[in-house]
């Protein structure tokens, strides 16, 4: 179980569970209140089966969800989806993407047509504020996680990683507290869209997967290079 959004851009299935559903015990953190662990598989069935195995409360993870009931994540696979509504985000964050990404989104929407799903275009509320508070949160928490490494091992770090961690130290304490204060309201506002739809279709990345070691500077706005990362603070 590793970082799954970026590998999933390469054609595998990356499941990002609800925060705290899968224990983070034993993993190296990036941001304490943003990190998720989830399965990467080649198909949906295997993904759901693996999630059945790894999901559950862990008293050694302070952020672990203490759920009484055991959920079978395979139970809805194959069920009829006729009449359900798919939301398609229209915010710039989700439409200003590489043409191949756009083609993939259109292809997915065409697959839904014979299933008689309804399509609803939606502008996600407060997405700019979500992105801003997401950036503050991940910078502050990553700076805390890596404070010792930045001091002692900076000469061994990748140049881009070092630059980002150095920039993270500029976040003020009050900025971090303000971001966390807003968080519950941002979650509540975003969740309201699901009163009108069953699922939301957004691209994982705005760009094609870069080569190892390649920098894509136009998207390197410090810890928010991916569409889905923009709403990580509300998941």
Quick tags:
single chain; 235 residues; mainly alpha; Amidase signature (AS) enzymes; 3-stranded parallel β-sheet; 8 helices; 5 strands; 37% helix; 7% strand; globular
Which helices and strands appear, and what pairs or packs with what?
Elements: H1 5-8, E1 13-14, E2 40-41, H2 44-54, E3 85-89, H3 92-95, H4 99-112, E4 118-122, H5 127-145, H6 147-152, H7 159-168, H8 173-191, E5 199-201
Parallel strand pairs: 3-4, 3-5
Antiparallel strand pairs: 1-2
Brief rundown of the structure:
With 235 residues, the chain is mainly α. It has eight helices and five strands.
Describe it for me?
This protein has 235 residues and is mainly α. It folds into 2 domains: 1-65, no CATH class; 80-235, Amidase signature (AS) domain (Amidase signature (AS) enzymes), CATH 3.90.1300. Helices cover 37% and strands 7% of the residues. The chain has helices at 5-8, 44-54, 92-95, 99-112, 127-145, 147-152, 159-168, 173-191, and strands at residues 13-14, 40-41, 85-89, 118-122, 199-201. The strands form 2 sheets. It has a 3-stranded parallel sheet, with no helix packed on it. Strands 1-2 form a two-stranded antiparallel ribbon. α5 crosses α8. The protein is globular, with a radius of gyration of 19 Å. The model is unreliable at 219-226 (pLDDT under 50).
